[in-house]
């Protein structure tokens, strides 16, 4: 299926590895120009080279461009750098590293402010900076990578549960404003257990807390997923690319759960 987005330009945050990179890869394969942002310059450069190798040949032999911006997207300066690389984005994939796990008794005000700033306020700032331009051009796709924890909270991820739930509530309202009639959609993509560094870090925290072997924890966790395995960044990226497609123009304000069936609820 041709998603009809070749030649569009996307900003993909947290794209040096993991789910962000999976989204960037899927978009590049669709002929989308991408600007990838992450803090680690060396890892980001390797990701950019990987993406460049995936680019399809476009019309008259032209290929989509891949640009990299080594910056912290959660800062004013980082966002300014992203928009200096390209001004008018058709697609924005927001993504920032999740807050650390722990016990809520140990988190002070600064820890909460940092979590809310990264996982709620930064996506809102990116939406504010791009949504009106998208509406004026008659097309726009914003996909926020959040977490399955907004539907089924994880006890040791209280910072993430709170901050991402705040973003979810905001999106529920803004996605249904006048921009919806102007070809702009905003959706949240909720990953469950994917085979990423984030999952590994969470399991290491559990192992340290309980004294269990990490391989045993990993195997036990996989058994709780009806699919019997962890997800891959490639399949997550494919879902993101679909939400950015022309075919997904009637999907907005939704929380798309990708978790192998782990969430047990009906709704």
Automatic annotation (TrEMBL):
Q: Which SUPFAM superfamilies match?
A: NAD(P)-binding Rossmann-fold domains
The record's listing under InterPro entries reads: NAD(P)-bd_dom_sf (IPR036291), SDR (IPR050259), SDR_fam (IPR002347)
The record ties this protein, via PANTHER family, to: 3-OXOACYL-(ACYL-CARRIER-PROTEIN) REDUCTASE, NADPH-DEPENDENT REDUCTASE BACG
The family line of this record is: Belongs to the short-chain dehydrogenases/reductases (SDR) family.
Please give the name of this protein.
SDR family oxidoreductase
Q: Which organism is it from?
A: Variovorax rhizosphaerae
């Amino acid at each position: 299926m041709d998603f009809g987005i070749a030649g569009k330009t996307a900003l993909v945050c947290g794209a040096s590895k993991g789910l962000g990179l999976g989204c960037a890869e899927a978009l590049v394969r669709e002929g989308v120009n991408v600007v990838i942002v992450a803090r680690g310059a060396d890892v980001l450069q390797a990701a950019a080279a990987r993406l460049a190798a995936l680019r399809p040949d476009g019309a008259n032999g032209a290929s989509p461009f891949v640009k990299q911006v080594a910056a912290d997207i959660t800062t004013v300066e980082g966002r300014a750098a992203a928009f200096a690389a390209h001004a008018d984005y058709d697609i924005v994939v927001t993504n920032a590293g999740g807050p650390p796990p722990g016990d809520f008794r140990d988190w002070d005000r600064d820890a909460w402010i940092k979590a809310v700033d990264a996982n709620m306020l930064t996506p809102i700032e990116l939406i504010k900076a791009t949504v009106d331009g998208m509406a004026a051009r008659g097309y726009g796709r914003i996909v926020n990578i959040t977490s399955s924890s907004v539907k089924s909270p994880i006890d040791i991820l209280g910072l993430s549960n709170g901050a991402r739930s705040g973003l979810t509530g905001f999106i529920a309202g803004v996605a249904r404003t006048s921009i919806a009639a102007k070809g702009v959609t905003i959706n949240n993509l909720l990953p469950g257990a994917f085979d990423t560094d984030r999952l590994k870090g969470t399991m290491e925290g559990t192992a340290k807390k309980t004294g269990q072997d990490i391989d045993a924890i990993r195997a036990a966790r996989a058994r709780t997923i009806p699919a019997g395995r962890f997800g891959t960044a490639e399949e997550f990226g494919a879902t993101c690319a679909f939400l950015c497609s022309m075919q997904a123009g009637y999907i907005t304000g939704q929380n798309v759960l990708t978790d192998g069936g782990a969430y047990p609820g009906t709704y």
